[in-house]
Amino acid sequence: MKKLCKILVAMLVVAASLTGCQKKESSEKKILSFAFVSPSVQAVITESAKTIVATVPEGTAVTSMTPIITVSEKATVNPASGITMDFTNPVTYIVTAEDGSQATYVVTVTFGGGGGGGGTTDPTEFSGNIDANTTWPDLGLPVDYIIDGRVYIEGNALLTIEPGVTIMFTGTNGAIEVGENAGLRMVGTADKPIKFMGPANNPNNGSWEQIRVNSKRADNVWEYVEFIRGGSDDYVWNAVIDLQGAKVSMKNCTIDGSLGYGIDVEYETRFLAFEGNTIKNCAQYPIVSEHWIGLLDMGSNNTFESNGHNFIDALCRDINMEQHTTLKAMPIPYYMESGLWIEGGFKLTIEPGTQMYFKSGQNVDMQAAVTLIADGTADKPIIFRGMEDENSYWLGIKYHSTKEASVMNHCQILNCGEDDAYFHGGCICIYDDARLTLTNCTIGKSLYYGITLDGVGLFGRITHSNNTFVGCGVGNVWLENGGEWGGVQYESGQILDDLP
């Protein structure tokens, strides 16, 4: 019996010990902070009365506001932080502790003041990510919002920036990046533009980084937005605006100052509109692109001035047309850094006044199925020339089009031609069954020939009149493999200077 009693006592001791080791569940159930991002307002919490009051600027749309809430450790709140609510009337929030006990808070939103963290003279500071629809209104301050670091607009969130807002980045890593399904809407006015700028103590170009957009949303609409002294990234393609497969409408915007480019048009970016914009004071080119599709969307009423290289840098070579396409005349030349390859069974129209400056060693290769309409005027010729004004600086036009309607009128084809077995030495090399009406053109500044005909004859037809050859070192027209010129059939290897 004594032994049994000892065992029972031991068991009771162990049980008591185990009970004492069990962790007590927390009963903490407080709302520690309650704030809105847009407008940026920190609410006042009265813990004893379990009331929360947020004062927002007059005119704030309180029917759709998203609070950010922090609560006691291991507690939860319902509705949850980040849930958009209607605050027209007081809203009840219930905090549940770990042990299941609850506390009820009543949140009231009132009007008054100008935002800015609860003050009328302090800008709103922001960092981190935006994952819900957010509006940044004009707080009426010299600087309304200060962004520290890189802000990501995530998920399906749309950030709307209203007219008159000024946003300052704190340093050279300052940026906004728009995710694939997110959006950025910035519609200012001529009187109340939206402004992005770097720190007040850094008046240099590159004082902040960039706006990067990966989104194809139709509400990526920017009007009267000023991007001032951005482009800090030292990466080779740094630009104030980086469009990566995006869709953007951009009207009456200004990019002023960059350590690199103004806009980088990447991948399959499309401009829903590109009108009335100004890009100036960029150390590199105002626009650079590896794809023609975005460049073809741009309007011609834009301004480019005082840039390190005042050209549109067309790194892209291929125009593979799936529809009739127009290459617009811009107020500055295209720099054809990779030349031009044109294919597809459609019509390419090059507007009068278009200027294309080619890099050394590059060419234009016009394939057989393309109809070319390069119909300039005496006042607005279409220019194909070298980036440097040197004889035979680039390789010229390799012309294969068999389309009857193709025309080159009032074009200047200069600084081209190379004495090479493949390129045949002409500023224009015309092949086989090609057809072309060539009138009022100026051709030359070649160390070799102006035009090379490579066997154009039975099915080909070159109609020509009133063309001028200048500075062709060997001859104006070379019939490499014979062919027809001016209604006359010539043998191989003949050079024509007295042209019929």
Structural class call reads mainly beta
Strand content: 35-45%
Strand order of the largest sheet: 10-13-16-19-22-25-28-30-33-36-39-42-45-48
Shape: elongated
Tell me the total number of β-strands.
Answer: 52
Write the layout of secondary structure elements.
Blueprint: H1 2-21, E1 31-36, E2 41-42, E3 44-46, E4 51-56, E5 67-71, E6 76-78, E7 91-96, E8 102-111, E9 124-126, E10 129-130, E11 134-136, E12 145-147, E13 150-153, E14 158-161, E15 166-169, E16 175-178, E17 183-187, E18 194-197, E19 210-213, E20 221-223, E21 225-230, E22 239-244, E23 247-251, E24 254-258, E25 261-266, E26 270-275, E27 278-282, E28 287-289, H2 292-295, E29 303-305, E30 312-314, E31 318-320, E32 325-327, E33 334-336, E34 340-343, E35 347-350, E36 355-358, E37 363-366, E38 371-375, E39 382-386, E40 396-399, E41 407-409, E42 411-414, E43 426-431, E44 435-439, E45 442-446, E46 449-454, E47 461-465, E48 468-472, E49 475-479, E50 483-485, E51 488-490, E52 494-496
Parallel strand pairs: 4-8, 9-12, 10-13, 11-14, 12-15, 13-16, 14-17, 15-18, 16-19, 17-20, 18-21, 19-22, 20-23, 21-24, 22-25, 23-26, 24-27, 25-28, 27-29, 28-30, 30-33, 31-34, 32-35, 33-36, 34-37, 35-38, 36-39, 37-40, 38-41, 39-42, 40-43, 41-44, 42-45, 43-46, 44-47, 45-48, 46-49
Antiparallel strand pairs: 1-2, 1-5, 3-4, 6-7, 7-8, 49-52, 50-51
